[in-house]
Design brief:
The complex is a heterodimer. Chain A is α+β, with helices and mostly antiparallel strands. Helix content of chain A is 24%, strand content 18%. Chain A has 2 domains: 240 residues, no CATH class; 189 residues, no CATH class. In chain A, the strands form 3 sheets. In chain A, strands 5, 6, 7, 8 and 11 form a 5-stranded antiparallel sheet that branches. In chain A, helix 2 runs antiparallel to helix 15. The N and C termini of chain A lie far apart (51 Å). Chain B has a 5-stranded antiparallel sheet, with helices on one face. In chain B, strand 2 and strand 3 form a beta hairpin. Chain B starts with a strand and ends with a helix. Classes of the chains: A alpha+beta, B alpha+beta. Chains A and B meet through helix 5 and helix 14 of A and helix 6 of B. The structure holds protoporphyrin IX containing FE. The site of protoporphyrin IX containing FE has 27 residues of chain A, from strand 5, helix 13, strand 8 and helix 14. Protoporphyrin IX containing FE (HEM) binds next to strand 5, helix 13, strand 8 and helix 14 of chain A.
Chain lengths: 449, 196
Amino acid sequence: MSEAASTSGPGVSVEIDDIQSGALHARPSPYVGRFFLLRIDDRHAGRAMLGRMLPATEGGLPTVNPDQGAWVTVALTFQGLRALGVPQESLDSFPPEFQQGMAARAEHLGDTGESDPAQWEKPFGTPDVHMGIVALAPDAERLQKALEHERAALQETPGVEIIWQQEVHQLPGGRTSFGFRDGISHPGIEGVGSGTNPHEAPLKAGEFILGYPDETGNLPPMPQPEVLGRNGTYLAVRKLHTKVAAWRQYLRSNSSSPEEEGLLGAKMVGRWPSGAPLTLSPDHDDEALGADPHRNNAFGYKENDDRGLKCPAGAHIRRINPRDATIVGATRLHRIIRRGTSYGPPLPEGVLEDDGADRGLIGVFIGAHLDRQFEFIKSEWVEDGNFIGFSGEKDPVAGHHDGTGTMTVPAKPVRRRLQNLPSFVVTRGGEYCFLPSLSALRWLSELKG
Amino acid sequence: MTTEQGTTQSGQPKRPGLTKGVCSEFTILANIKPGQAEAMRAAIAAVSSEENEPASRAALQEIGTLHDARHVIFDSDTRYLFASVFDGSWDTYIDDFAKTAIGANLDRIFSNAEGFPGIKDPTVKDWVAAHQASALGFATSYPDLTVQQIWKDQRANQAFQEVLDTSEFRAALDNPANAALLATPAFQKLLDQAQG
Ligand code: HEM
C-alpha cells in the first residue's frame, strides 16, 4: 500500500510542557541510567510518592542540549493505577491490552518457550509491578543527583517499595551488545519536532500523544477523565537478553571469511556496525556515513532498493520500519518511538563462547496505540513475514526462532536463504505502562478516598 | 489441519469467524436501510463491473491479503451478506484497510446497511464484530498459502514454463557438464514438474 498522506496540516498545537520529557526527547549520548519497578502497598502512600516525585519530573523539550541534563520519568501499570485507587469507571476506560498487561499478551507477542512469562525475571509479569521510574543522565554524577530526589521521596513514603532495579549504560561507540550502533532512527512528530529521516513526513501527534488527531484522522481512544488521559502515552517496556556468543557463532559458521561475516551480520540488521545503512552503502561499512546524522538515516527503499538487493526486506531495521517500501499495509499506522538502553558488560571482542553474563537491552517502545503500534509491529513484522511476501519468516535479530528459522537474502543471480536460525534474543520480562502527563500525575497524587 | 475459532489479534474480545491454516473466513450479515437496496446494488455494480476490472485488480494488489469476496442482497432487498476469505485476522489490518481503494469501495456499499458508522470511524470494529456471523464449516484447498505466496508461486511457475519452452534449456539438460546438477534430488523434483 502506498504511504498515507497526512490529512491535516501541521497546525496542531501540542501542549508540550505538560508531556513528560522522557517521551519526547532522545536520551543523552553517552548515558547512564537506572530503571526501577515499585509496588504500592498503600494507595495514600502511592499518591504521596507521586506528589513528591512531581518536582523532579520534567515536562517538555529540553531547553538545553539533552547531553547536559538528567531526567526522571514516572509510569504506571494498570495494576498500579488500581493500587492508587483510580475510580473503576476510569480504569475501565483503558484499552483492553493495557488492562491485561504484557504477560497476558505473550502468545500474541511471540513470548513463548524461553521467553514465556513463566520464565521471566521476577517481579515482571506479576501483579506486584505498579510503578516504573527511569532516570537517565549523561554521567554517574548527574545520575546520582537526579536520583537523590527519588531516594528522599521513597524514604518519606513507607508503603511504596522498590522491588526491582536495573542499571543501564551506553556501551563504547553507542553500540548494542551485538556490536551495532543504535539510537539512530527516530520519527518526527507534528507540532513537536522533526525526525531523523528527511524523507518521512512527521507523523500526526495523536500517533504518540493522547488527545490529538492521529494518522487515521481520529482521536486516539483516551482514558477518562480527560485530565488523566490527555498528553499521556503508553510504554511497552521489555528486558531483552541478547545471546551475543550465539550471534557470533552463527555468523562465523555461515560465512567463509571475516568480510563475509561482516556482510552477513549487516544483512540481518540492515545497518553496518558503524550505523551506516546498507541501502546507502551496500558492500562495505562506512564509518563517516554511520557517524553523520545528516546522512545515516536519510533514505527510503522504494526508489533504489524495492527488491531488497541492498538491504533485504527481512532485515531488522527494514521490517520494523519499512519506510516507503512496498508492503501489505500502511507503514505510517505502525510507527513507534524507541528508547533502547544497554545493560550488562559487553562480551569482549572475538569471544565466541558464552560467558554466562546477562547482557542486552531494556527496550522502551512509546506510542499512543499499543495494539496497532507495539503489538502489531511485534506480531506482524517481527514474528511473521507475510507483509513482505515471506510468510513465516521472522526478524533474524529480534524474532523468536526455534532453531529452524529462515531468512531470504535477495541476491543476483540467486537469493541466499539463511537456515536454522536460533533466537538471539530472550525476553526476560516486560510491562505495559501508562505515561501520564504532569497534570495527570498531579491529579493522581491528589486522588481522594 | 484443524479449523479453529479465530483467535483475537487485538486486545478486543474474541472475534467470531473460523480460521484454517493461514486463512480466515469472514461473513457479515446486515439489514439494508429501508429504500436503500437500489443504491447498494448500484454501489456493488460500480466496483464489480467489467470496466472496473483493472481498477479492481489494482485494489486487490494493494491489499495483498484478500483471497475472495462476494456481495449478496437477499430477502426481498432487505438483507445483505458479505462473505470473504483473507489472510490473518481482520482487525489487525482494519485501520490500514480504511486507507485503501477497497476500503473506500466497501465504505460506499456498507453505508447502505443499518447502523454502519463509516469505515474510518473508530467504532467500526464494534459494528463489524456485532454483524459478523461465524461459519459453521470452512474448507480451503490451500490452507498453508497466503495470497502473497500464491502470487509468488504463480509468477515462479509462469517463469518456469517459459524456461521449459526454450530449446536452450533442452540442450542444457543433454549437456554432460550439467550431469551433477541434474542428479541432485532437488533438481529431480523440478524435472518431475517439468514432465507435464
Ligand atoms: C535485543 C533486540 C534488539 C536489538 C539488538 C535491536 C537493535 C537495533 C539496531 C542496531 C537498530 C539500528 C539503529 C537505528 O536505526 O536507530 C535498530 C533499529 C530499530 N529497532 Fe531494534 N533491536 C532489537 C529489538 C527491537 C524490537 C523488539 C523492536 C520493536 C518491536 C525494535 C524496533 C526498532 C525500530 C523501530 C528501529 C528503527 C528502524 C528504522 O527506523 O529504520 N527493535 N534496532
